Amino acid sequence: MADSTPQGAGEGPSSSAAQSAAQQPDLTAHVERLEARAKALERLLVGKVEWAQMETAQHLQLLEAAVDNLEGTAKEAAARHGELLLAAKWLALELRGLDLLADHVKAVDALSKKLEAQVQEPFKAQQSCSSYETEMADDGFQDAVAAAVAPPLAEVAHDALASQQNTEAAQVQIVSLQPVAIVDHVCVLDEEALRSLVPDELGGSHRVELAEVQRTLTSVGEYFSKAGGSAANTTRGLAGLGVHTKLLGCRGFDEWGTLFSSSMKRAGVDVSGVLVKQGPTGRSCILSCGGQRTMRTCLSGCPRINPDELRADDFRGVPWVFLSAYCLYTPNLLERALDLAGAAGCSVAMDLASFEVVRSFHPAITALLERGAIDVCFCNEDEAAEVAGGAGSCPEAAIEYLAQHCKRLAVVTLGEKGCLIKERGSEEVIGLPACSGVKVTDTTGAGDLFAAGFLYGLLKGYPARRCGELGCIAGGAVVQTLGAEMGRDQWSWLHQRMHGRLAGEVVRDSAAAVQREMLACYSLIERKGRGVVYYGSARLKQDSPHWDRAVQLGRDVAQLLGCTTWSGGGPGMMEAATIGALSVGKPVGGIRIQREAGTTVRTASYLPADSQVFCRYLSSRKVALVDSGVRMKESDHTAYLFLPGGLGTMDELFEILTLVQLKKLGSSHPVPVVLIDYDGFYSGLLQFLRACDANGTVGAPELRDLIVAQDNAGVLQVLRSYYNLPSDGASHQPAASVYRASAYIRLGGDEQAAGSAGL
């Protein structure tokens, strides 16, 4: 007991210190564990947020695809509704015919009863028969029958013709093959962000797994998704140019496959040849930095179209087939496509895809070329060098090799330096510059859209140089936006470069159906060339006193100016002027409407088949006719000539005068507008313009561009004076009074004084 107290007093302090020292490491370790756990929770939370962002993006894409599908369903329902309406019209016509037949039977039955009652009175019976025959032959009765039958007949005939035109327009012009459907995820990064995502060499395309695609998408932030792939991009570009295209291939049974099909369908591509199989759709991250792209693509487990799934029907009757060397990754697919295309008589265009593809399949590609299986070959300078013998080959040497083995021609694109074109058998290598004034945003799809523009030119029968120009324009348009799908502004820019400023404005502001018609019109105008546009009544036929003069005017003006004679392609004054131009072997063109005013059905055509376009929409026709007379170069000889006409002619006259007044005609140089006042036909109009001036609604100076000529000699005098053309030495009939409408109004309607004032 005595020893215990001192011992306890001595050991207490040292024992507490020891315990504290022992507990200190435990607390530190505990804090470290808590911090580690907090960091782990933080990483987990960040991962969940990133995953949620990706899931949200995917659901948004799925929602977009669902909306597209609903739009497609609505369009199909609308088309079915139209078919039902047409069937209803046919049924109504049949019922109307049955009603008329029943009335006719009743009339015959009534006459039979009369004849039976009067059989004893031959004279009366004969008189009764004659009366009935007279009644049946009466113009009023026949007119009544015609009035009952003609409207539904005309309407059904119009619908049938429109349906036939739509069917003809729906004939596939180009079939493209893309074995695997791909969805592009496009985003813009600065170089620092790009290098943090891509540790290896920037640029080019590399295959990755799905996890890498997902990791990249969660890191880049904002991106957008569109249908992609080389052949799909070219096909979509052709559809945008108004070409009926069909895509063959395969997509996965997932939301990305739905997006691919709906995106292509919305662009106007026929995707009935795109198969749907179990598995994922291909996906590619396109990282754009400074206009250049780095691609990371996942095709793991993606379903493909097999060679035996290509059908001969897909190629039959199709002028062109477009193939990509990417098809070589699917064994025997390219050979099968070439066999079917050859059997169907199709021309074949092939893109060499990438220099990696050429390097991997060099023997197969050279074998295809050297056996003459390819009509047109597209490649960039790296691919050309690889196929022609390695990196040491220059583009000029490479194109010599390619042109020697292609059946028609070879094209080498040079990026910002333009392109080279060489036709087989020609000594000339055509070198074209790239489009100027282009701000490059992203080069994705530049080569694909170049091919689309070039093929569009081939389909239209343009020479190789013009095809190359169109390819450069299309490639220059797509690099101004992100990804390979152009928006309205890019299409407007493209058509402005192709056809002029007016075309760009029309395409930007037009609905899709009108836009397709406009593209067909502008294509015809480009092929035939701008010239003199005639306006006039469709009702003034060969019995009109103006007919012969209009024929003579068309002949004389065509010989004087040598340009294309344009009109609405309808009957009457338009036909007369066109016949005159045709009689002296000059080119003609017509922008026709389904049914002219004053007619009940589409009139027969006097125009060559390749010199006319039909429009369902009057707006398309009016704009195209205006553009047919636009004067793009000072050396162009164009004019707007107004023969006697009615409301439609007046509408077009005032529209042109308004466009001139507002400087919206789209012409780089002034164009003569001539009112042809045969026998004072337009005297009432001129008096109306005087009244407008007197009331302050139109000022005389605003009508300075309207020239009045009272006969053909006056029209020729105006054109010679306007274009400073020498006389041909023949004795010309003196012109009647020729004057400006502004002078006529200013001088109180005195034609002689206005004529003396000069032009």
Question: What does this protein structure show overall?
Answer:
The protein has about 750 residues and is α/β, with parallel strands linked by helices. Among the domains are: about 30-120 and about 135-170; about 530-755, 3-Layer(aba) Sandwich (Rossmann fold). It contains 25 helices and 22 strands.
Output the keywords.
759 residues; alpha/beta; eight-stranded mixed beta sheet; 25 helices; 53% helix; disordered N terminus
The CATH class designation of one domain is Alpha Beta
Count of separate DSSP helical elements? 25
The residue fraction in helices comes out at 40-55%
Largest sheet: 9 strands, mixed
Q: In terms of structural class, how would the helical and strand content be classed?
A: alpha/beta
- For this structure, the CATH topology of one domain is Rossmann fold
Low-confidence stretches: 1-11, 119-169
Beta strands, count: 22
Q: For the terminal residues, how far apart are their CA atoms? A: 143 Å
| Shape type | elongated
What is the average of the pLDDT values?
81
The CATH architecture term of one domain is 3-Layer(aba) Sandwich
Measured by DSSP, the beta-strand proportion falls in 15-25%
- Indicate the radius of gyration in whole angstroms: 37 Å
Q: What's the arrangement of strands in the largest beta sheet?
A: 6-5-1-9-10-11-12-13-14
Organism: Chlorella vulgaris
Family: Belongs to the carbohydrate kinase PfkB family.
Keywords: Kinase, Transferase
Protein name: Carbohydrate kinase PfkB domain-containing protein
